[in-house]
Amino acid sequence: xxxxxxxxxxxxxxxxxxxxxxxxxxxxxxxxxxxxxxxxxxxxxxxxxxxxxxxxxxxxxxxxxxxxxxxxxxxxxxxxxxxxxxxxxxxxxxxxxxxxxxxxxxxxxxxxxxxxxxxxxxxxxxxxxxxxxxxxxxxxxxxxxxxxxxxxxxxxxxxxxxxxxxxxxxxxxxxxxxxxxxxxxxxxxxxxxxxxxxxxx
Length: 201
Fold this sequence. Notes:
This protein is of the alpha/beta class. The chain has helices at residues 15-30, 36-48, 52-56, and strands at 83-88, 91-94, 103-109, 112-116, 127-134, 137-142, 148-150, 153-155, 158-161, 177-184, 187-192.
């Protein structure tokens, strides 16, 4: 008995087909080719699609690269390298449009670091913030629609997630922000603020 025809576009969509399509849509949202609303609509369609050609109808226009010369604000495409922030006896602030990549490492040694992620492009496959505060302080600010998972620890210091649950629903398919690390004679806090509260540059 022969198996299913893997080349038949009318065959039932598999989880592999959906995962590939989901990656394409998330990448397009990350680099600005799709808005968040359009990305959510397409991801919902992919999730409910029955056949391969139906799944592909949501990504067909994304399977070619954008024309050369197109550019926009910093974007996360899922291909960025890890990034880092460092503070030694001073204050370091990251805010505005920036891409922390899949992993952003923070070291605050007798200094302070503020990471404002409200306007940042988080990695579509998930972003991890790895924090080490040694006799220093780190504040991480997230927007109203970011889900946070925190498992950092304090040793004679504090590592606190004060963000609470998202105040607006996270985008469909968005990965939670993972915050981990340690605070030694220092403090790490995660806070939630509305995007309208971003101070002018």
